[in-house]
Amino acid sequence: MSSAAERTYIVKGAEQNIRNDGRKREEIRSIELELDVIPQANGSARVRLGATDVIVGVKAEIASPDLDRPDSGKLICSVECSPLANPSYKGRGGEELSSELTKLVERSMFSPSSSSDSSSSPIPLSSLSIIPGKTCWDVYVDALVLSLDGTPIDAISIAIKAALASTLLPKVDLVAGEGPDDEPDYELDDDPSSALPLDTSGVPVILSVGLLGNGPLVVDMTGEEAGCAGAVLQVAVNGGGEVCGVTKRNTKALDPGTMMQMVGMAQKVGRGVHGCLEGYINEMKRGGER
């Protein structure tokens, strides 16, 4: 916990556009990204954002579709915080944060705009259907926060987008039934070179924008800055800069003008994050080295 003098120093510095670690208000920390860090997963990524360290694995399994969405697959997300992620965790503190982060990811990154329209999901759920009404892909996205410094959702969302972008699903060949009335079946192609990627172009990243004291706005807060934030807006932004979801944290009320400034900052920074992330992933797919 920072002292009153330290909090004043952090806020005054941000007012002058000079943050404690040398960044400007709209500048995020350097992103360290590794892909395919879990060999047995369909896709995986590890992201370090400052001292925040997150690893995400994606696993795909063949299952039955939901009755109300027979032509769609499913995305299932889980976020867990290691008990060692932050020394402040006591009792059920880590579990409560894990539950909060899981709900935030599901709501802001994966939920379709209409509960009856799976095509509006950031990943087209119809693309996960194998035999409509019979089989589909269930895609499990599991995130683990290894170390925490500031608001973890930024690093989590970047790692999820990267892990999904690296995910490959085995090619499925449909096999006609023996008789004219028999339902079709499927066969999995075990050739890794024939595996197919997911369409992740619509998957957003989430940027946290904090209001320090009564004035300056900053993105990608450190733990010290988060302790000075009266309000935090977590904004999901897609590659085109469109807002996919907004969640407010902390108790300080926000006037509409300030909220719009916070959303605008997240959109501006989010477009840059998407550009860098997609450029790096495309380079890796082409066989380039970091």
What report would you give on this structure?
The protein has one domain: 2-Layer Sandwich (Ribosomal Protein S5, domain 2). It is built from five helices and 14 strands. The mean pLDDT is 87. With 290 residues, it is an alpha+beta fold. The strands form four sheets. Strands 1, 2, 3, 4, 5 and 6 form a six-stranded mixed sheet that branches. A four-stranded antiparallel sheet has the order 12-11-13-14, sandwiched between helices. The longest helix is centred in the C-terminal third of the chain and has 30 residues. Helix content is 27%, strand content 30%. Strand 2 and strand 3 form a beta hairpin. The two termini are 37 Å apart.
Overall geometric form: elongated
Total separate domains: 1
- Fourth CATH level, the homologous superfamily: GHMP Kinase, N-terminal domain
What's the CATH architecture name? 2-Layer Sandwich
Low-confidence residue ranges: none
Q: What top-tier CATH class fits best?
A: Alpha Beta
Strand content: 25-35%
Using the coordinates shown, work out and report the CATH topology. Ribosomal Protein S5, domain 2
What string, H for helix and E for strand, traces the elements in order? HEEEEHEEHEEEEEEHEEH
Distance between the termini: 37 Å
Our count of helices gives 5
Largest sheet: 6 strands, mixed
Helix fraction by DSSP (H/I, runs of at least 4): 25-40%
Structural class: alpha+beta
Using only C-alpha atoms, the radius of gyration works out to 21 Å
Number of strands: 14
| Rounded mean pLDDT score | 87
